[in-house]
Specification:
globular, 60s Ribosomal Protein L30, Chain: A, alpha+beta, 7-stranded mixed β-sheet, 312 residues, 36% helix, Phosphoribosyl-aminoimidazole Synthetase, Chain A, domain 2
Length: 312
């Protein structure tokens, strides 16, 4: 749909829609929900909320209001389970500084939870995933491997410390990372979720009309992700991502198989992938670390090209 005030809409492959209210304000709107990825209902609520809020942060915005989206088998599960899910979400919403204004629930065979989020930003300062420029450096703000660790958890093969660390990162808001990039100024950003690092990197490359070169040795990876991938504990979504991207990605022969799986691994509440001018890279890394985003790493660069991904 074309509209003069629709700054980002369905004609792009961006993280959220953006509608201009006036010269100083634009609304950012997004929605996301999914089935439980951990057994603890409170933690599940936190992770689902953080994941939904992330799209607003990826656009450089501030979440304002949220609506709960709930599907729950009330005849099969204790209603207190739902209470814990909602409590986890509410705590994460409060941490984000947003306001819960309502929601909607339905009866379903399997729990599902997430948020519809409205955020705000200056219309001239919206950050999209389609403005990366040749010469930019690529920065990632969270470690990879949540899908693999979640698969290991379901198979009861994940060590407790692996589950704890993955859950901690999934429940971490991208608020501080977003604040750092807004303070420095960047060209493009996206958050890494179900399409994995390579899927979301390809969206950035295609939307920007450039190639992205990723240094596999620089990737931050969750403890246990490599080992579990080597055991074959890889989610089906990773194979779907691989098939979808087979003509868009070139991976050097020396990249280990388990790292290839991590590159395609679907993430839940993953970090931001940021394209920043080379001259601002050190400033952005310093701002990220000052705000506690200690997993941030420079993982590659943007080069001229037709929208492909090269992993070396």
């Amino acid at each position: 749909m074309d509209h003069p005030d629709l700054l980002v809409g369905m004609n792009s492959i961006d993280d959220a829609g953006v509608y201009k209210l006036d010269q100083e304000r634009a609304l950012i709107q997004t929605i996301d929900f999914f089935t439980p990825i951990v057994d603890d209902p409170y933690l599940y609520g936190q992770i689902a909320a953080a994941n939904a809020l992330s799209d607003v942060y990826a656009m450089g915005g501030q979440p304002l209001t949220v609506l709960n989206l709930v599907a729950f088998p009330s005849k099969k599960l204790d209603i207190n389970v739902l209470g814990e899910i909602l409590r986890g979400g509410a705590d994460k919403i409060m941490e984000a500084g947003a306001v819960l204004v309502g929601g909607h629930s339905i009866e379903d065979e399997e729990p599902k939870y997430g948020l519809a989020v409205t955020g705000i930003a200056h219309p001239d300062k919206i950050i999209t995933n389609c403005a990366a420029r040749p010469g930019d450096r690529l920065i990632i703000t969270k470690p990879l491997g949540t899908g693999i660790i979640a698969t290991a958890i379901k198979a009861e093969m994940a060590a407790p410390e692996q589950e704890k660390e993955a859950s901690r990162w999934m429940a971490t808001l991208n608020r501080e990372a977003a604040a750092a990039m807004v303070s420095i100024g960047v060209h493009a950003c996206t958050d890494i979720t179900g399409f994995g690092l390579l899927g979301h990197a390809h969206e950035m490359a295609k939307g920007s009309g450039v190639n992205l070169v990723i240094d596999s040795a620089s990737l931050p990876v969750l403890p246990g992700a490599r080992e579990n991938a080597a055991l074959g504990l890889v989610p089906g979504g990773a194979y779907n991502n691989r098939r979808y991207l087979e003509d868009e990605v070139t991976i050097a022969d020396g990249v280990p198989d388990e790292l290839r799986d991590i590159l395609y691994d679907p993430q839940t509440s993953g970090g931001l992938l940021i394209a920043v001018a080379a001259a601002k890279t050190d400033d952005l890394m310093a701002a990220l670390f000052d705000r506690g985003v200690t997993a941030a790493r420079v993982i590659g660069e943007v080069v001229p090209g037709p929208g492909k991904i090269i992993v070396r």
